[in-house]
C-alpha cells in the first residue's frame, strides 16, 4: 500500500483523458504589399530600352508564306518551259544517269560534247516528270528515277556521243529520243551503226536508178534476141547459096 500511494509512481503512470490538438492552417506572416511610389519611379527610370536596329524591320522580316510559294511556283514554271523548249528544238535527247564526277572531268566531258554541238542539261525529276506526263514523251517517265542529265543536240550525233560517253563510266546512257522516236540503250547503239544520211540517200538513188535500167533492158531483150536470130538465119542462108557476105542471093527466073 505504501508503494502504491507514493506520489512519484502516481505521477509517472497518469495520462490525461482529454488532449487538445490545434488543427488548422498556419498563420500567414507575409502579405502582398504594393511597391512604394518612389521605388516605382526609380524602376521606370532605370528600365532598359533596346536600341533600334539600323535596318528597318520591314527589310529584315521574313517573307510571307504566300510570297514564297508564288516565287517558287514562278521559278518552277520557268524550268518547265526550258524543258519543253529542249524537247521541241532538238532532234536528239539522250537520258543518262549521273553519278558523282569530279569537276575537272565534268568540264572536259562538256568540252568534248560541245565540239559536236551537244549540250549537257541538269534537270530535276520534280520539274521534268509533270512535263513528260502531259506530252507524247510520257514513255520516258520510267527513266527519271534517280539523278539524271540530258544530252541534247539539234543534230543526230549519236556516234560522237557514244564515243565521248565511253570514256566517262560515271555517266550511264539509259535511253534516247531521236527524231521523235523513243529508243532504248541497245536501240541507240544500233542506230549508231547505221550509215549516214548522205550515204543512205546515195544508196536509195542507186536502187531507184537500177530498177528503170533493168526494166529497159528487159523490154529490149526480146527485140535484140529476135534481131540476133534473124542475123544468124541470114548468115546461114548466105552460106548455103555460096554468095559472098553482104550480098543477097540472085533469084532464078524459070519458065512456068
Radius of gyration: 54 Å
Main pleated-sheet profile: 5 strands, antiparallel
**CATH top level class name of the domain at 90-192:** Alpha Beta
SS content category: alpha+beta
Portion in strands: 5-15%
Question: What keyword list fits this structure?
Answer:
rod-shaped, 9 helices, alpha+beta, Alpha-Beta Plaits, 12% strand, 256 residues, 5 strands, disordered N terminus, Large ribosomal subunit protein uL10m, five-stranded antiparallel sheet
What do these coordinates show?
There is one protein chain. This protein has helices spanning 7-13, 37-45, 57-60, 65-89, 103-115, 125-133, 158-165, 185-192, 197-241, and strands at 92-98, 119-123, 148-153, 171-178, 181-184. The longest helix is centred in the last third of the chain and has 45 residues, at 197-241. It has 256 residues and is α+β, with helices and mostly antiparallel strands. It is 50% helix and 12% strand. Helix 4 (65-89) packs across helix 6. Residues 1-5 and 249-256 have low confidence and may be disordered. It contains nine helices and five strands, in the order ααααβαβαβαββαα. The chain has a domain at 90-192: 2-Layer Sandwich (Alpha-Beta Plaits), CATH 3.30.70.1730. It has a five-stranded antiparallel sheet with strand order 2-3-1-4-5, sandwiched between helices. This is Large ribosomal subunit protein uL10m. Keywords: Mitochondrion, Ribonucleoprotein, Ribosomal protein, Transit peptide. Belongs to the universal ribosomal protein uL10 family. Residues 237-256 are annotated as: Disordered.
Amino acid at each position: 500500500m505504501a508503494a502504491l500511494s507514493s506520489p512519484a509512481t502516481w505521477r509517472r503512470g497518469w495520462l490525461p483523458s482529454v488532449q487538445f490538438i490545434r488543427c488548422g492552417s498556419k498563420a500567414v506572416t507575409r502579405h502582398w504589399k504594393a511597391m512604394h511610389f518612389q521605388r516605382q519611379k526609380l524602376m521606370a527610370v532605370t528600365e532598359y530600352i533596346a536600341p533600334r536596329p539600323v535596318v528597318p524591320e520591314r527589310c529584315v522580316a521574313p517573307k510571307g508564306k504566300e510570297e514564297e510559294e508564288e516565287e517558287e511556283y514562278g521559278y518552277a514554271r520557268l524550268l518547265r518551259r526550258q524543258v519543253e523548249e529542249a524537247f521541241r528544238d532538238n532532234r536528239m535527247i539522250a537520258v543518262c544517269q549521273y553519278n558523282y564526277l569530279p569537276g575537272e572531268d565534268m568540264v572536259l566531258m562538256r568540252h568534248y560534247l560541245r565540239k559536236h554541238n551537244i549540250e549537257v542539261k541538269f534537270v530535276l525529276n520534280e520539274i521534268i516528270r509533270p512535263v513528260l506526263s502531259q506530252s507524247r514523251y510520257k514513255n520516258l517517265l520510267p527513266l527519271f528515277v534517280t539523278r539524271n542529265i540530258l544530252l541534247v543536240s539539234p543534230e543526230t550525233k549519236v556516234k560522237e556521243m557514244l564515243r565521248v560517253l565511253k570514256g566517262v563510266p560515271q555517266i550511264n546512257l539509259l535511253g534516247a529520243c531521236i527524231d521523235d522516236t523513243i529508243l532504248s540503250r541497245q536501240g541507240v547503239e544500233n542506230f549508231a551503226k547505221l550509215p549516214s544520211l548522205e550515204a543512205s540517200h546515195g544508196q536509195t538513188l542507186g536502187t531507184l536508178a537500177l530498177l528503170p535500167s533493168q526494166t529497159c533492158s528487159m523490154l529490149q531483150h526480146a527485140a535484140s534476141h529476135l534481131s540476133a536470130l534473124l542475123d544468124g538465119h541470114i548468115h546461114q542462108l548466105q552460106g548455103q547459096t555460096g554468095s559472098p557476105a553482104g550480098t543477097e542471093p540472085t533469084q532464078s527466073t524459070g519458065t512456068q
